[in-house]
């Protein structure tokens, strides 16, 4: 079987049929309106993904609260947003009724930007800090996640992604660094109970066996005490807790997982496609395979960090470019059982029509991500995000942003 046949083959996720193996990663783009509703820019981005033929789309980090958030114009999911989100999903399904969409629900916690929101934490981390959350406040936040899930269901989403990655609140609670003595801190039993309790509450709230529930996971955050480390201050990697967590969530009904690594504040190079380190993509394949090995065959594992593989010309050494292209490597990983789907993040910015161009025999027309990371600079500067290399309005926005703030010297939140 060639890579085209593999990547365009259908797959079942829970009780839903996904038309191919292409997954559009949740990419924060800072382009909502003032109330957190999708703007015209938001519609345009997702309309292109739907026209581009992605099998599954993950709606970017949509916050369950306006009080604590990382982006000034971040998508929000509260009762006031329901009508706008319903129109948004209805319009997208008119464009392409076959694409599935899940909402990545998030709370930013210690990553919240104090200039316009409340930074909170479960244990102060060096360089971040924040108001210490009480047990009652965490219970309220969990209620907000449940309400957001019910809104997602009501507006026509196919499911939700319970965000447990990249240093946002879910990661902050389950990591070993959270050794504070409270309901969801200290022992692994108590820290993991947060994810399990939240999963069960969401399931009870939506009460629909066809509604997909899964999670994007930073299997290793990449800093001492982060999720996937051996202890509260340990720099050593230990997969005991991450593997136990995904098995526990699967037992409670999770139908898919999205592999990831890193932390938006302290280890962004593990989560982004950096130009000078494309070989880090191999680490993601390793972790996706590790997840796949401990889960049931029918539980879908989505791999990440495929943008550096590009077309038949990339910066990866020691491998024939014919075998290390995005399509060839992605298909190989699926055929060998390392993962079930291929996640595209920066590449979905560079060319949201990538799956359609493959299907239509137009591979030579695909724009591949240059890994310039200028889109990331726009996000950190709280500007609407898009591909600077191939989309002139975003290139002009970057020029204007640098005139105002200067060129960003460090890529982290």
TrEMBL record:
The keyword Cell membrane does not apply. Pfam families: Oxidored_FMN. GO terms for molecular function: FMN binding; oxidoreductase activity. InterPro entries: Aldolase_TIM, NADH_flavin_oxidoreductase, OxRdtase_FMN_N. It comes from the Bacteria. Keywords: Flavoprotein, Oxidoreductase. Residues 7-365 form the NADH:flavin oxidoreductase/NADH oxidase N-terminal domain. The keyword Oxidoreductase applies. SUPFAM superfamilies: FMN-linked oxidoreductases. This is 2,4-dienoyl-CoA reductase.
């Amino acid at each position: 079987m060639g890579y085209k046949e593999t990547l365009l083959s259908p797959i079942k996720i829970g009780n839903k049929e996904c038309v191919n193996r292409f997954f559009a990663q949740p990419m924060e783009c800072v382009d909502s309106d003032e109330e957190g509703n999708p703007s015209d820019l938001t519609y345009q981005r997702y309309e292109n993904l739907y026209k581009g033929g992605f099998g599954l789309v993950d709606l970017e980090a949509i916050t369950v609260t306006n009080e604590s958030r990382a982006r000034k114009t971040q998508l929000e999911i509260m009762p006031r947003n329901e009508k706008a989100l319903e129109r948004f999903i209805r319009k997208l399904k008119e464009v392409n009724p076959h694409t599935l969409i899940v909402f990545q629900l998030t709370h930013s916690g210690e990553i919240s930007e104090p200039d316009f929101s409340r930074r909170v934490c479960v244990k102060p981390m060096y360089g971040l800090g924040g108001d210490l959350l009480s047990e009652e406040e965490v219970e309220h936040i969990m209620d907000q996640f449940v309400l957001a899930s019910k809104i997602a269901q009501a507006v026509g989403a196919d499911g939700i992604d319970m965000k447990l990655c990249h240093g946002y609140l879910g990661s902050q609670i389950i990591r070993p660094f959270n050794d504070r003595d409270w309901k969801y801190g200290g022992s692994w039993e108590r820290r993991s109970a947060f994810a399990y309790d939240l999963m069960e509450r969401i399931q009870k709230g939506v009460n629909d066996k066809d509604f997909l529930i899964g999670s994007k996971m930073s299997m290793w955050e990449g800093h001492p005490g982060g999720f996937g480390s051996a202890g509260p201050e340990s720099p050593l990697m230990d997969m005991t807790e991450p593997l136990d967590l995904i098995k526990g969530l699967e037992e409670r009904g999770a139908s898919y997982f999205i592999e990831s690594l890193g932390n938006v504040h302290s280890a962004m190079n593990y989560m982004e496609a950096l130009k000078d380190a494309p070989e880090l993509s191999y680490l993601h394949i390793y972790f996706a395979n590790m997840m796949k090995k401990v889960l049931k065959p029918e539980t879908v594992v989505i791999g990440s960090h495929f943008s550096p593989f590009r077309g038949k010309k990339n910066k990866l050494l020691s491998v024939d470019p014919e075998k290390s292209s995005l399509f060839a490597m992605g298909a190989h990983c699926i055929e060998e059982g390392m993962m079930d789907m291929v996640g595209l993040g920066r590449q979905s910015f560079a060319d949201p029509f990538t799956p359609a161009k493959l299907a239509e025999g137009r591979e030579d027309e695909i724009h591949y991500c240059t890994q310039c990371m200028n889109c990331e600079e726009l996000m950190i500067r709280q500007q609407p995000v898009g591909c600077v290399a191939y989309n002139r309005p975003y290139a002009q926005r970057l020029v204007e942003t640098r005139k105002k703030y200067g060129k960003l010297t460090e890529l982290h939140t």
